[in-house]
């Protein structure tokens, strides 16, 4: 069957193209210049220094009427017409959308400002409220059609092609701790191509089959309006672009990012090598809102024909159609024609985007695209409402995505996408087409670009100097020495530039020089408490002091604050007993005595007399050398009295002498006198008298003091005497 009225009924109802380009690729943080097509704000604070698109395109086929197995189409055994599955309804819809992006680029003009320039050619065709039941009747032509009577309704179809040049600007609007907001605006200059449309109004169609093309008839009612900026439907003109048909469009968008780890990206703490963290995706959640394709193209002298299609047409007339315009005029009469300026709208869309950085390089994106155009209006192009859930794995050079999308026409589809640096390719329906035997969609996108990524600069030795500028890239060093460590010739940890003695090792505290010994006392100046005066090691390099100036150093001076004699360990001469004789000359330093007696007390006559009295009162048992015990208290008292006298003369030497009367044998008397003298001496020693100060001696009857002829005389001769025999000086008597 040639060109026929069926074109008006089934136009675009078989295959349609998805109205959203690059599905599954756009959420990628490395979508670059393609991202500006859906939200102009995406280009600022991006992961690119610049992104240059060489060529990219996105196109697809889908419908809500006819499903088939795309992967079986190449098989000779597969008959798409017979094996496909149809789903006719009274309001089947369709949309066709193609997008070709030419040379385009984006780049950052400042840390918070970016621009983009792009070129683009687009085509969109909409078909709504098409009665699929009628198409189902006519799919095999009128020869095989049976009688039908169908209320076609008001089918509406529109097609529009145009080119555009866009300029985008985006900026960071807010950066406050974890809150980050950016916005963008795109202005587009539009050049029209073809704008055509056809809309029926209350159309009915009834067919009466007689098996004879001359008598088989199609009866129709209603009106049909056909409009076009170029007369290629009803005339002989070829499709061409019209440089006189121009217009303007605009996109704008906002993107908010929640950055809970904002402190990790504080620019105040950034090093040059960090490149201000431009290479990192910093958000945990990202939300986008944009409206695209605001505007229209003005077509001058656009022709609009309105046909009254009430009438009956034979099958033969339909089979003989050569030109559709001629057929319509021949069968339904001259249309009502007007020429006027038509403003063809762009398919305005509201885009919603939410992106979650689930874990490291794994993301989950939800994207919604809602048409803002009345799809039933005459000549209005529109977009399909779409929701897309896209999990993805994303790195700088590679992305794998798995878009799961739902469209109002074709239902649920699952696809996949890949990005390998400068190339990207994908399909939002690939997986569905692979496994489904009645797929209603097929799409593909691909592109080639030159991406120049933001990145952390290489600093192998982490000294804050980029490797390309580091003279020693593998060894850390300061900027002042071109990234090389300062040398340390003497190995003392003080680098040569700070070392006052670079060839001789020395401590840091002394500027790299060894410590000196200014006073030559062998104590180094750093530990010498008196670095300019020679001293001794034991006193931290200081000389020992002599506080009292007696030439005896304080460390040896027992009297450091009182001038004394060297011989006296620095102390002055002492006179402990205050007798005027210094202790060193005092034979009795603890007992006062006259100088004439070398400081010892003199044993006076009175003392000797008292000793005599006391000694003569010490009695013995008759004929024995045993102290009388009959009157022991008196004997002890006499001995104590003698002891008290003797202790006052510690340096005096005394002799205890024993005497007897003449009665008896001389030899026995001698022995008895000696024994009795010793007993007295021992008794005094026992009471504490220094034994070195005592001697004893017996004289027997040889020294009588009275006549032995009388009793009184003999009694006087039996006696004990304490005799002072001299003074001990320096161990000598």
From TrEMBL:
Predominant cellular place of this UniProt entry's protein: membrane
Q: Which CDD domains match?
A: OmpA_C-like
Tell me the Gene Ontology biological-process terms attached to this UniProt entry: cell adhesion
> GO CC terms on record?
cell outer membrane
Renumbered to this chain, the signal peptide range is 1-19
Q: Which GO terms describe its molecular function?
A: calcium ion binding
Localisation: Cell outer membrane
Question: Does the keyword Membrane feature in the UniProt annotation?
Answer: yes
Gene3D superfamilies xrefs: OmpA-like domain, TSP type-3 repeat
- The segment(s) forming the OmpA-like domain are 607-728
Q: What is this protein called?
A: Flagellar motor protein MotB
